[in-house]
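<goal> How does this chain fold?
<sample>
Here is the protein in question

***
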Amino acid sequence: MAALIPEWFRTWIRYQLIPALGFQPQQLATGVLRGAFDTLLLVFLGLGFLTGGRLYMSGEYALPRQVQSDVLKWAPVADHIARKADIPREVPLVLWFKENSMRSENPENCTGIIGAYDLVRSGEAPCFTPGPVSDIEVSQQLAIAATEFKERCPEISYWTQNPELIKKCYFAYNAGSGAAARLDANQSAYVMNNYNAAYQNMVYSDIELGTVRVTALGAWPTHLAMQSLIVSQMDVEERPFSLALVDMSTRLYDWVASFTLGWGFGNSDGATKLIFPGERNLEYETCLNTPHLLGNPLLRPRLNPVSEDPILTQDVHGCSYSLPGIDITSSNRRAILRAPMEGNVTTYTDVWQNTTIRIENDEWVVWLLHPRSYLVEEGEVSRGQPVGVMGSVGYSTGPHVHYAVYDKIREQFVDPSLFVP
């Protein structure tokens, strides 16, 4: 390779360019090797910590194999329920495990997989029919438990990581807010049994069961085991790196991209036109309505959700899934997604595993599907505000956003092409 480089050019590099830049070839080579070594060390350390933590949790707090499979299956649903109730994402699954070992069948006492004794007895919740239940009923019961958990421990949130507060909340859910305020959660068998050698075969007192010695995992070690499992649910079998490591790097990249876009760097030209075919064949046009013209023009969606170089990849589709919209991609596969209108934003994963950004105001609702990460917390957003990064999460064949618009005045979906430049 070096023989192909002219001698004069090599001489110029050696005696002019390198001295001008202030480094020597040996120093450059050493620096590159050290940098590569440090990078590999960082990656392997990260993987080592995550894998080691997973193995430790699996050995310390053993969950049955079927329970682990159920945790991974229900993690996206539990996360959506937890976000809505504003409690940690593992909580609904832990409550299900504690009540019914994550079996999808109601017990004989008609209180449901999640218990809810007080609600059933007071008439606030139905007497759930003993026997197998559908996935929809499981979701409903998880939502009931999440609401009860939050009511008994309102100081907790989705982002809470404080162990003592989480333990106290599990204690409050099990024994009531009054008991949790007076007593120590660390002395509760429901919360702490089998946490370590000091918490083995703890005594548990219950009105129904009487006084018994517990052998099952307590809520707190179960919480830790499920947390470890969920963090690494898409490990080397699915991706070359652990989900947590990838998530950390993508979030950093996305945050920097959002920050630079906010300061005016990068292309965010709202006037960029999205080209539609001359003759549009809307196969399912019966699921679309004409949008209302009156109303508050400030609430109307007016921006393309893709901030740069938007490209139409598929015209209106999705009527059979009750979410008709268009698919938009970009030459930049990591393009920033922005709010097409002002409103209240929520983020969740739907039943098809599609990550979703939903924005609603008094007249319109818009959906942005498949973002690889969110750049906004739930709450109010303004038009043009970065809300996510285009991705391919869920039922998707490549990075894009599925964009749907719902007219609350006409109570029907409308053609999104009428709302993009």
Observations:
- Residues 190 and 218 are 5 Å apart (CA to CA).
- Residues 285-419 form a domain with the Glucose Permease (Domain IIA) fold (CATH 2.70.70.10).
- The longest strand covers residues 310-317.
